[in-house]
Every structure is written in structure tokens, then in C-alpha cells.
Amino acid sequence: MKIALHGKEFQEDTAPYIQEVFDILKDRQATVLVSRQYKELLKAGGITSDRVHVYSDEDTIAGTDFFISLGGDGTLLESVTHIGRMEIPILGINIGRLGFLATTPKTHIQEAFQALYNNRFTYDYRTLIRLESDRGIFGKRNFGMNEIAILKKDTSSMIVVHTYIDGEYLNSYWADGLIVSTPTGSTGYSLSCGGPLVLPQSNNFIITPVSPHNLNARPIVVSDNSIVSFEIEGRSKNFLVSLDSRSQTVDASIQMAVRKEDFRAKLIKMNGYSFLETLRQKLNWGWDMRN
Question: Which domains are assigned to the chain?
């Protein structure tokens, strides 16, 4: 079996769990690929990873059976950009913190690999969002799983984001910024700005203003078949565009639109996993300090 892995910097207390993953793959004689950056982190962290190959782009991980994300949700979002349109199944092992996406606990690594090798899992397909611009920002990785955000930069002044849906004028948002989120991203930045929670397979985008000047500017849910486009203005000439955890500075002359990507993320869902149970656990629903 051919398996690719990706991770970020890790703490000393999580190193034994990462070592456990490599030991399991060695025992099963799997062909293992890691990113060059992660290979250096493993070496610095004292992880023994014999017979591990380095991948550099989509071509070198073609034909991979599974992609393992070792970290939190941010690591899994990065993993999606490494895979691109190949739709390699991703298993998120949570050695990070929150874990809406990386749903396999670090204490269940053995069980997770047994399930992989015995085909005891299902797939959870997640919509991706794509940014198109006349500047080609983010290059070939102009897609993400959570959200695209347009934000003010280096100034206390608000910006104005004139927003259109399929070419028809929607609203001009006087705000610190504007978020267009997928259902997956509805538990992230959009939620912290007052956006609604949307179930993963809802086929929607959520447009959420960031600290709007007008309190009647509320989040709106639109079809993910829509094309959402923007014109930006403000006192500053530079603005920030973020795509999940990546960001670039642009000026007001840029033309941008977002739409649904024509491929999806293919997450591995272990038998017994429940998204609603995860919501209750992570958001402390039903919890009362008096009990």
C-alpha cells in the first residue's frame, strides 16, 4: 500500500503518537511519502522514519491509496491543497486541538489503521471553493475547503465590498471584511463572525460580513452553484485576501469571483462517526455548569 503523510511542527508530548504511525506503516511494509518540509521536521523531532520517500508535487503522489494528515484542522486544510483534483482519501489524525475535520483521536491510531486496511470506513465528500481573479493569486492552489475572506489591511478604516450573485447586485458591505464560506467552513471563521452552522452536504455558500457598520447586514445563505463576485473600495489601496490559512495582499483594481470547485475533498469517515455528535462535543451543547 502507498500512503502519503503531511504535518506541521509538533510538540514533544505528541512525538510518540507520530512515531506510532510510522512504526505501524513500517510493520505493514507500506510505501510512505512525506513532504520535504515535514521530513525535516521529523528529523528535528527525533522521529525514526526509515525508507520514507519525499514528494514534491501532485505527480509524485499520484497513485497514493491514502493521505494521512497528522495535526489539527489546519494541517488537514493544507493536505487538501497538496492533493488537488486527485481526490486521494484523507484520514485526519488529531494531534492538534479542536478537530472538526481531523476526527480520529491520537489515542485511536491502531484502530484507525486496522479500519483502513480492512476497508471499514466510508467517504465524506466535502465541497471546495475556488477563487478566480485577473491576477492569478494563489497560483494553481486557488481553492480551499473552508472559506475565502476579503479583509482590511493596515488601517482602522472600514472597506466597502460591493457583492454580486451571478452578476446581479446583492449588497455593499461596509465592514472590516467579507467571508464566503463552504458548509465545512461554517464552523470556523464565519461562525465567529455570527454566521450560521450549516451541515456539510447542504450544497450552499454562506456570505458573512466581518464587523459590519450597518447592523442590518446579516449573513446570507446562497446556492453553491452561484458565482459570487466583488468590487472593493476603501481609503487604503491595499487589501488582504485569505484562502483558508493562506493570504495575499491585493489592490482595489483586482477583479475577483468565487465559485464551487469542480472537484471535492474526500475525507475518510470511520464507522460510528457522527457530525452532530462532534458539534455537541466541540461546542459544549447541552452542557451546564450546574450539573
Answer: 2-119 (3.40.50.10330), 128-262 (2.60.200.30)
